[in-house]
Protein 1
Amino acid sequence: MQKINSFLPLLLSIPIGWLAQNSMAQKSPIKPNVVFIYADDIGYGDLSCNGAKAIQTPNVDKLASQGVRFTNMHSSAASCTPSRYALLTGEYAWRKEGTGIAAGNAGSIIRPDRYTLADVFQLSGYKTGVVGKWHLGLGDKTGTQDWNGHITPGPSDIGFDYSFILAATGDRVPCVYVENERIVDLDPKDPVYVSYEKNFEGEPTGKLNPELLKMHPSHGHDMSIVNGISRIGFMKGGKSALWIDEEMADRITSKAVSFLEENRSKPFFLYFATQDVHVPRVPHPRFVGKSGMGPRGDALLEFDWSVGEILTTLKRLNLDQKTIVVLSSDNGPVVDDGYKDQAVELLGNHKPAGVYRGGKYSSFEGGTRVPGLLSWPGTVKPGVSDRLLCQIDMTATFAAMLQVPIPANAAPDSENHLNAWLNRGGKGREYLVLQNVQNNLSIEDGKWKFIAPSKGPAIQKLTNTEFGNLDKDQLYDLITDSGEKVNLAASHSDQVARLKAKLQQIKSK
Ligand code: NG6
Ligand code: CA
C-alpha cells in the first residue's frame, strides 16, 4: 500500500488520453502467472535446444519445444550486475554510476523510489518473489550494513513481497542466505562480519592456507574460506548460517517450488535466479561426473534439473496453462572464471557461446546473445523467432500485457514488444545498445553491429576472454558474419557514421 501511494503522483502524471485509450482496449487484462528463470553465465551454445551436442538439457529443451525459442535474445550487458539492474529498472546500466559488478557488501543499487519490473506485477495485484542470486546490493550504504539485523533497504522496497537470496554471488562473501532481508539460521551469539578491505584477525584465507581448500582458485578468489572454497572478500562468524555450495541448487529450487505452491491460487511473479553455472561450480554429488565435462558441465545438468522441478511443479499444481515461463541468462559464458575446476581441460569440442565470438565480459555477441525461451502452453504458439529482443524490455512488455501505465520517467529504455515476446507477430527491437565489462558500448541495428572504439584491453588473459575492444571503429554484418570476423568499418563508413550518430543520440537522451 505504501508503495502504491509512493507511485501515485507519478501515475497521476500519465495523460488522461492514454488511460482512456488503453482502458478501452480491453476491460480486464488476463493475468497469467509469470516465472522468470535467470541463469548465471550460461551461454547460447550451452543448451541442447540451441545446438549443444556434448551436453544434454532435456528439461530446458522441453520448455523450448512447448514455447518459442528466441535466437536473438540479449542481456543488456556482458556481466551480471548491470544486466540485472537493466532487467529490473528498464534503464541501461551505463546511464547510472555504480552499476558495475557489485561487491558482496555493496549498498542497494536500486533505491526504494525506483519503479521496477516487480512493481509492474505487484501493483497489478500479483504476489511477487525473488529467489536465488541477487547481486544488486543490500542495505543503505556500502560496507556499513549490520548483517545481523534487518538488512534494509532490500528486495521488499522495490516490489518483491518475498525474497530468499544470496546477497551477491556464490564466489563473494557473505556466504549466507538472506530471507526477507534477514540472514537465515543465524545464531545471534555468532554474528556475521563482512569486509572487502581487510581480513579479520585469526581467520584463514585461501592465499595463506591453501591446505584447507577443496577447490583452488586459478585467479583471485583467495580470501575467506567457506566450505573449503576461498572467496572474494572477508567474513567472520555466522557458522550456523553458512551455505553449503553442494546443496545450493536444492535449497533455492525448493524455495522457488514452495513459492509456487503457496501462491497457487493468486497470480504470481517469480524471479528465480540460479547460481548455476557461475563459479564456484560445486554441484550436488548426484550430478558430479555426469556430464563428462567436469563441474561446469555438471552444473549445467543441475541447472536443467532446477528447470525441470519448476515445470513439474507447475504441472502438478495445474498451473501450466496459466503460467508464462521465460528463461534467459544474465551474460554469456566463461570457461575459467577463477577456480581450477577443469572447465578448460574438459571442454572438448563444446562451444559455450555457440557460433558467437567472445563470451562473458565481451562486446562481441558471445557476451550478450544468450538463451531466450518463453512458453505459455495453450496460448503462445511454439516456434523459433529471430527477432531482436532484450531483457530490458520486460518491464514495458509486461506492463502492456497487464495494461498498467508506467510512471513518467520510469523504465526509460524499456520498450513494449509484447507481440514479439508472445510470438504473434511484432518486429522486435529496431536497435539495441549493449555494454561490455569496461562499459564500452555497441549498437545493433538491423543486420549491423557497431562497436565503439576503445582503448581497453583486447583480451583478458586470465579468463582467455576477448573483450571486443579495439582502438578503431568495428562494424559487423551479423547476417552474413554472425561470428564477427570481418570488420567492415573501413568499407562502410556511411553505416559507421550513421550508427555512431545514433549511439550518441541515445546516450544523450
Ligand atoms: C569477477 C570475478 C569473477 C566473477 C565476476 C562476476 C575475479 C578475479 N573475477 O571480478 O570470478 O565473480 O567478477 O561475475 O575475482 S558476474 O556474473 O556476477 O558478473
Ligand atoms: Ca553472470
Protein 2
Amino acid sequence: MAINYLKMPENKVIITVASTGALVTKKMNPSLPEQPDEIAQSAYDCFNEGAAVIHIHARDKEGKNSGDPAIFIEIHEKIRNKCNIILQDSTGGGHNLTVEQRTGCLEALPEMASLNMGTMVRTIGEGAGTPFMNTRNEIEAFVKRMNQFGIKPEMEVYNVSMIYEANLLIERGLLQKPYCMSLILGMAYQGAQEANMMFLPTYLQYIPDDTYFSALGIGRAQTILGVMGMIFGGNVRVGLEDNLYFQKGELATSNAQLVARMVRIARELGKEPCTPDEARKILGLKHLARCDKEF
Ligand code: KMH
Ligand code: ZN
C-alpha cells in the first residue's frame, strides 16, 4: 500500500497548543486558563515558546463550557492584541452544549475549527455516560458551515474507522486540499482508540493523500506520541486540554511549559517550530478578517 500523506519539510514542525478544553477544570490543575484574559496570556506565552496554532474552548463566567460567539470573539480579540498565532476554535464544545450551540464559535470567524469525525460515549466528567454526538449528517452540516466562512476544518480522528468519514467528505467535494487531521490516541471516550503507539503507523497507512497530520496523545501519551509524530513527518498538539501533567505526579505549571518541552525535543530532531505565517502557508489557510493585524 502506498503511503501518501503529506510530510512536513524535514526541518519544520507545526505545534498546536490546546490550552483549555472542555473536560478539565482549575480544580484538576489551577494553571488551566479558562477566562478570555487567561487564555490570551497563555496563547501569547505559547506563541513565544514556538506554538503556531491555538485550539480554543470558551467558558462562561462560572467556568462552564460555552458556545457563545461573543465569548469566542472576545478571546480572539484579546489574543490578536498580543500575537498572530493561528486561531482554531473547538466545535466539540462540551457535554452541556447542543450540536447547534457547538457551531456558535464559527460565527466568530476562526481561521480553523475542529471537526469531530464520529460519535462516541463520554466516560469521565459530568457528562459521563452521555453520547458525544457527531453523526454523518452532523459532520456534514459542520463542514458546510465552515466552508461558508472559509474556515479550514481540523479533522479529529479518534479511531481508525473515522478515516472512512473523511474519505466520504472528500468524495462529496466538501474538503479543500491540503486536509488537516489530528490523529488521537488515548481519549477517554468509549469508542476511541487506546494509547497504544502502534496505532500511529496504522493510522498513517490509511489517512487520505494530501493530508497533513498532527499527533495528539492524551495524558502520558502526549509527549511520546508527539515525538513519534515528528519522526513520521507530522505535526504535534500539546497542552492542558489533553494532558494536565508535566510528568508522573507533577502537574504542568502552564501550557507554555508543555510547548517549550516539545520545542526542545523538536530541535534535538533538527526541526524548528513554524511561525504562524509559515503554518498558514503550509496549511493553505484563507486570509480571514481576524488575522488582519500586522506583527
Ligand atoms: N480533546 C481532544 C482529544 C474538539 O474540541 O473539538 C479533541 C478535541 C475536540 O479537542
Ligand atoms: Zn478541544
